[in-house]
Amino acid sequence: MAWTLFITNVPATMLTLRQVMVLYTVRWQIELIFKLWKSEWALDRVSGLHRERVLSELYAKLIGIVVMQFLLAPYRDGERELSVVKVVHIIQHHILHVIERLGNLEQLTATLQELAMRFLKNGMKDKRQERLTTSQDIRALEAAFA
């Protein structure tokens, strides 16, 4: 029937229909991010028993997540996007190379540049055949209400 029904407890005076539609589109992405954080960064698992160890591990994972999201953000708005899952797997595979070069700025820079090239070559999301990306959905909504 081509209907879309939005049910919310937000008063109509606070959000327009357009804003509700954009928020609904982004909502699913937020859920996917939390799912990704739990699965790929194992936020639901820690290897320590002592409070300090657990907090240190949790903070390290959260810092890693924030840095990763920040670094990938420029590559998320376009026709092809970097896959966070693929990038995490590439980093996990090459992290020892990065650690080994921490003492030498030239080698570290070269290794990080090589890693970035691997991201762009092997870390892209597969092209979607049927559905638009969230950023494409939002642009389409904005165009419809312009």
What would you say this structure looks like, in words?
- The protein has 146 residues and is mostly helical.
- Helices cover 64% and strands 0% of the residues.
- The chain has a domain of 43 residues.
Shape: globular
Q: Label the structural class.
A: mainly alpha
User: Averaged pLDDT, please?
Assistant: 83
Q: How many helices? A: 5
Considering DSSP H and I runs of 4 or more, what fraction of the residues is helical?
55-70%
User: Biggest β-sheet, characterized?
Assistant: none
H and E order? HHHHH
Could you give the distance between the termini? Answer: 25 Å
β-strand number: 0
Strand content: under 5%
Rg, rounded, reads 20 Å
Low-pLDDT segments, ≥5 res: none
Search tags:
single chain; 146 residues
Outline the fold blueprint.
Elements: H1 17-40, H2 51-72, H3 84-100, H4 105-122, H5 134-145
Helix pairs in contact: 1-5, 3-4
Question: What would a concise description of this structure say?
Answer:
By secondary structure, the chain is mostly helical.
